[in-house]
Amino acid sequence: MHLELKLTGKLDYERNSFKRLTLSARDGGSPVRSSHVSVRIRVTDDNDNDPIFEQLEYSVTLLENLPSGHVVSRVQAHDADSGAAGRIRYAISRRNKATAQNLVNINAITGDVVLKQKLDRESHNGLRVLIEARDSGPNYQRVG
Ligand SMILES: [Ca+2]
Ligand SMILES: [Ca+2]
Ligand SMILES: [Ca+2]
């Protein structure tokens, strides 16, 4: 006997990584004779979730002349995938203006944003810094 199973929808590892089906076959005899078979489906994880920041915007007010090395803020993102596909690395975006790129560094793992130079109210007031989170999986997702 030949049996073909077709997917009628998308499998989602995050919702259900394991499925079990029981199939039965019966003949047309009298009495009916039947048997059952169980099919187990294991779903593996695809990198289908982007890292998502806890906040869309982080806002800090700082006193000028703070020393370099001062931790300005900590950003956090989450990624629903497992393994490398959910492991997040942070970076200061290359799309930032030079002033922002020269002013802060970010710890790729903790998300700590650290001053690289002393703050100057006259040149750094109202500065915006764009931070990226990306996962480490294949076909990584980058989110600004
Ligand atoms: Ca999914
Ligand atoms: Ca996934
Ligand atoms: Ca991911």
TrEMBL record:
Database matches in InterPro entries: Cadherin-like_dom, Cadherin-like_sf, Cadherin_CS, Protocadherin/Cadherin-CA
GO CC aspect terms: plasma membrane
Major site of localization recorded for this protein: membrane
Classification via SUPFAM superfamilies: Cadherin-like
Alphabetized SMART domains for the sequence: CA
Membrane topology field: Single-pass membrane protein
Molecular function per GO: calcium ion binding
Domain Cadherin intervals: 5-53, 54-137
Residues in coiled coil: none
Alphabetically ordered keywords of this record: Calcium, Cell adhesion, Glycoprotein, Membrane, Repeat, Transmembrane, Transmembrane helix
Protein name, entry field: Cadherin domain-containing protein
